[in-house]
């Protein structure tokens, strides 16, 4: 910055500005006559003297300490910069932008489910948005003891609260544990409100909370997919046929061992389908039989003439009343 009035001019600014920091503290240096305060876009600067907040500056640009900053500080209005001594004060730079952070449960959450004694394990992923909204609380709770505060530390605080909140709102809003995505908006809204109450304690606020996906164990997800496929097909026979075709396709190009395994599975599937076909045929026969019994059977009209052959043994009757071979009445 050069020299001002023959005195050393230091620059008060966020050194090595990092996008992942919520605040950074400029301290352990003397503010001397001719110093400049530089505030970049997306930053606010807070002057602290003896641990007390003296002023907040939100306009971006370069400002002269003596003529533009000191006159607006509450307890330092009468301070006169000497030529050889400076003022030791702290300047806290605040990142004012809104942060978007990805989150995910570190391990599966076991949701109570009556058919599973250990519960249904579920993992959840999404994003949340946050920013600083209360400087005094942030200074009192965090900045008073830290040189800087990163967004990763906020994420760790949120993740520590997330598991019990997920369980609370999934059980409250998730009517079907196998279809939680349909209720994700209500679940996310409730979790976001609870997290906002917690982050307000450190001077921050949750501006948005989103759930991107619910992940089930592989075997549970496979079962869900099969049930969904079954409901889409609507017919068990067609569903089994499709399963057999998919199995044959998956078996192509594999090793001999895999082919044998696929063949065995195909035989088992064929036996199941054969049994189902037999069962279906029996049902059809039973239905057709009941229909035939329900309809009147037409009886042949007796013309009064005697048969030429015995209906019992086939011997020619020659017009007699009884069969000459078996004695059956004609």
Automatic annotation (TrEMBL):
Residues 277-306 are annotated as: Disordered. Residues 27-229 form the SPFH domain. Pfam families: Band_7_1 (PF13421). Residues 277-303 have a biased composition (Low complexity). It comes from the Bacteria. PANTHER family: FLOTILLIN BAND_7_5 DOMAIN PROTEIN, ZINC-RIBBON DOMAIN-CONTAINING PROTEIN. This is SPFH domain-containing protein.
């Amino acid at each position: 910055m050069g020299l001002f009035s023959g005195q050393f001019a230091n620059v008060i600014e966020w050194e090595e500005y990092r996008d992942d920091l919520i605040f950074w503290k400029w301290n352990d240096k003397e503010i001397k006559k001719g110093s400049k305060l530089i505030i970049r876009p997306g930053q606010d600067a807070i002057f602290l003297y003896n641990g007390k907040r003296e002023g907040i500056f939100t306009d971006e640009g370069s400002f002269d300490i003596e003529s533009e900053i000191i006159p607006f500080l509450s307890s330092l209005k009468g301070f006169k910069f000497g030529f050889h001594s400076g003022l030791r004060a702290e300047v806290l730079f605040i990142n004012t932008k809104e942060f978007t952070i990805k989150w995910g449960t570190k391990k599966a959450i076991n949701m109570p489910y009556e058919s599973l004694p250990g519960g249904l394990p579920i993992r959840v992923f999404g994003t949340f948005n946050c920013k600083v909204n209360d400087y005094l609380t942030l200074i009192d709770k965090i900045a008073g003891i830290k040189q800087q505060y990163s967004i990763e530390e906020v994420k760790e605080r949120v993740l520590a609260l997330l598991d019990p909140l997920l369980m609370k709102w999934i059980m409250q809003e998730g009517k079907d544990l196998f279809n939680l995505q349909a209720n994700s908006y209500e679940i996310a809204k409730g979790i976001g409100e609870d997290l906002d109450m917690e982050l307000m304690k450190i001077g921050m606020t949750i501006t948005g909370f989103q759930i991107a996906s619910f992940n089930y164990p592989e075997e549970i997800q496979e079962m869900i997919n099969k049930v969904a496929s079954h409901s889409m097909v609507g017919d068990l026979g067609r569903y089994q046929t499709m399963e057999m075709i998919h199995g044959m396709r998956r078996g192509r190009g594999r090793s001999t061992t895999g082919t044998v395994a696929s063949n065995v599975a195909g035989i088992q599937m064929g036996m199941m389908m054969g049994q189902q076909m037999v069962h279906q045929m029996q049902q059809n026969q039973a239905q057709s039989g009941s229909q035939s019994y329900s309809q009147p059977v037409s009886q042949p009209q007796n013309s009064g003439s005697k048969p030429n052959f015995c209906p019992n043994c086939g011997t020619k009757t020659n017009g007699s009343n009884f069969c000459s071979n078996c004695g059956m009445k004609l």
